[in-house]
Amino acid sequence: MKATLTAALAGIACAAVALATAQLAAAAVAPGSAPVLAIGAAVVDATPEPLKDFAIRTLGENDKLVLLAGIGLVLLLASALTGVLARRRIAVGYAVLALLGGAGAAAALTRPAAGASWAVPSLIGAACGALTLALLMRKAAEAPVPGRAVDRRGVLIALAGAGLAGAAGWRLSGTSDVESAREAVRLPAPASTGPAGIGLDVPGITPYLTPNADFYRVDTALVLPRVVPEDYRLRIGGRVANELEFTYPDLLDRDLVEREFTLSCVSNEVGGVLAGNARWLGVPLAELLAEAEPEPGADQVVSRSADGWTAGTPTAVCTDGRDALVAVGMNGEPLPLKHGFPVRMVVPGLYGYVSATKWLVEIELSSFADFDAYWVRRGWAAEAPIKTFSRIDTPKPLKTIAAGTTAVAGVAWAQHRGIELVQVRVDEGEWNEAELAPVIGDDTWRQWQWAWEAEPGRHKLEVRAADTEDLQTEERQPPFPDGATGWHSVVVTAE
Ligand SMILES: Nc1nc2c(c(=O)[nH]1)N[C@H]1C(S)=C(S)[C@@H](COP(=O)(O)O)O[C@H]1N2
Ligand SMILES: [Mo]
After folding, report:
1. Contact, 337 vs 182, CB < 8 A?
2. Do 206 and 162 lie in a common domain?
3. Structure pTM?
4. What's the CA gap between 432 and 450, in Å, rounded?
5. In whole angstroms, how far apart are CA 107 and each of 38, 41, 309, 391, 408?
6. Are residues 438 and 488 in the same domain?
7. Which of 289, 298, 346, 466 is deepest in the core (most CB within 10 A)?
8. Does any ligand 1 atom lie closer than 6 A to the CB of residue 212?
9. What pLDDT was estimated at residue 44?
């Protein structure tokens, strides 16, 4: 029993050494090339749509953490079992390490941003794991001994060494250098500043401008891509007359514009919070495209991130006069790392997955016929204008409130069409018109409020909005494939 336990620990120690040395090697190659991250990313890409949707819905921003913890737990159990089996037949241990190294290398090589060197960390890890196994499980000198003798002190040393190497690798492949580069950035003053909206002041309402720290985050990146401004290049190519390339200072030296508008995610459910309103600073995308001169028929602007994610935006939308930006700033700061530092795209009126590429490194003119972007390949709509949405932020669902005058308030959005009307009703009665906050244009969300004389009892509140043309539809639709529809409702009790 005790020998089995030691063997299990030895298995875990070998896996830990393999992963730690791989992490250390990945710090030199690219953070995404570490085997667990590469396998995790491959799993994310291969996960069927309904499961991914379920994960985003139930786990929210913790989905990545849960995935990595899951992989970690599987590895822990598998390596313990391997250790036990390897004591009888050491070849089992070598085979599992080879399998793990091969899987890690293969997963790393299939990452869109990978070069041949991305296989190296997994292979180094597997080799170091195998060496550790050979050292820990020596042939027992005196026969007959059932299986090999496991070097117990060696196991502890291996575990400690793996801990140190892993911590060093993790630190080195982290983002602290990008963080300090970001802190050193001084953004120039905008050449053109748009109007600033003013919010309604109702307790519990979503603020008009979303602070960066509260801004929703959605992306496929398990580790934040590390893009330092010093090495930054934005390439514009594909079907254009002039290929262009810009450094980060090139972009900052241009006439920057600052505009407020709302970004929202296609995965947002009815009542969901995957939207934010910010002040974006950047270069008008239309200017860059005009200099590149797209060829006729190049109807899709494909934007690519440092980690190989892609979005496809209609060229016509990018050049129709709206504030489509190659953005460098968000609410007066350089873009936060999570939101695409140093450069991202943002286009008012389209869901993020077809327009808002973070860690932007390439703009390629193509056509919708020739290229499907990341989520389009997975069945989501190729063109995705934002659907009219309205939400009750206060009172909160299932709250007990005091009967009498109660502020019912929230936000509504229909970017680039604009919100014209918001209505609220109680218990499916008459619709009441809400008071709307003044807005600066059609591209930002609009706060609203309505004073409700709440009678004691349980009530259902419902909201709906209208843009310049249509009333928001009551028909419930899930986010897939082009955005959710339906009215948001909350049930509260007044006492
Ligand atoms: N590189 C990259 N950019 C990306 C994504 C991504 O997965 N990778 N996701 C997009 C999606 S689906 C949305 S809704 C927005 C969200 O931007 P935010 O995280 O800054 O709110 O980013 C977009 N840009
Ligand atoms: Mo999204």
Report:
1. yes
2. no
3. 0.90
4. 8
5. 5, 8, 16, 41, 50
6. yes
7. 346
8. no
9. 85
User: Within 10 Å of residue 406's Cβ, how many Cβ atoms?
Assistant: 19
User: Domain range holding 154?
Assistant: 2-174
User: What percent of the chain shows pLDDT beyond 90?
Assistant: 83
Mean pLDDT of 70-95: 94
pLDDT at 142: 55
Q: Are 436 and 466 in contact (CB under 8 A)?
A: no
Q: How does residue 45 score in pLDDT terms, banded at 50, 70 and 90?
A: confident
Instruction: Assess whether the C-beta atom of 64 lies below 6 angstroms from ligand 1.
Output: no
User: Residues 455-465: pLDDT tens digits?
Assistant: 999 999 999 99
Q: How far is the CA of 309 from the centre of ligand 1 (A)?
A: 9
Please check whether residues 449 and 412 belong to one and the same domain: yes
Distance CA 164, CA 166 (A): 5
321 inside domain: yes
Same domain, 149 and 18: yes
What is the number of the ligand 1 atom nearest to the C-alpha of 353? 12
The closest residue, in CA terms, to atom 19 on ligand 1 is 217
479-490: average pLDDT = 97
**Domain contains 185:** no
Asked if residue 218 has its Cβ within 6 Å of ligand 1, the reply is yes
Let me know if residue 186 belongs to a domain: no
Query: Is residue 278's pLDDT more than 80?
Result: yes
Residue 184 lies in a domain: no
Mutating to test ligand 1, I would choose from 64, 210, 219, 337 the residue with most ligand atoms within 8 A of its C-beta, which is: 219
Same domain, 154 and 57: yes
384 neighbors 351 (Cβ within 8 angstroms) = yes
Give the ligand at the shortest distance from the Cα of 278.
1
Q: Which residue minimizes the CA distance to atom 5 of ligand 1? A: 219
Look at the block and give the residue holding tokens 């028929």: 297
Q: What phi and psi, each to the nearest 5 degrees, are found at residue 55?
A: -65, -45
Residues 163, 74: one domain? yes
- Counting ligand 1 atoms within 8 A of each CB, the residue from 302, 337, 358 with the most, and so the one to mutate, is 358
Question: Which ligand 1 atom is nearest residue 359's CA?
Answer: 1
Number of domains observed in the structure of the chain: 3
Q: Which of 353, 377, 389 to mutate to test the pocket of ligand 1 (most atoms within 8 A of CB)?
A: 353
- Which three-class secondary structure state does DSSP give residue 70? helix
**CATH number of the domain to which 358 belongs:** 3.90.420.10
Please determine, for residue 333, whether its predicted confidence score (pLDDT) is greater than 60: yes
Same domain, 364 and 410: no
End residue of a domain, out of 330, 347, 378: 378
Task: Compute, in angstroms, the gap from residue 361 CA to the centroid of ligand 1.
Answer: 14
Q: Which pLDDT score, from 0 to 100, does residue 62 have?
A: 77
Is any atom of ligand 1 closer than 6 Å to the C-beta of 117? no
Between 48-57, 146-155, 259-268, 368-377, the lowest mean confidence (pLDDT) is in: 48-57
Which amino acid does the sequence have at 225?
P
Ligand 2 geometric centre to CA of 27 (Å): 29
In ligand 1, which atom is closest to the CA atom of 219?
A: 7
Indicate which CATH number applies to the domain containing 477. 2.60.40.650
Residues 6+ apart with CB under 8 A from 395: 204, 401, 406, 408, 461, 490, 492
**Which protein residues have a CB closer than 5 Å to ligand 2 (ion)?**
218, 265, 352-353
Q: What is the average pLDDT score of the chain?
A: 94
Return the ligand number nearest the Cα of 337.
1
Phi and psi for 259 in degrees, rounded to 5?
-140, 145
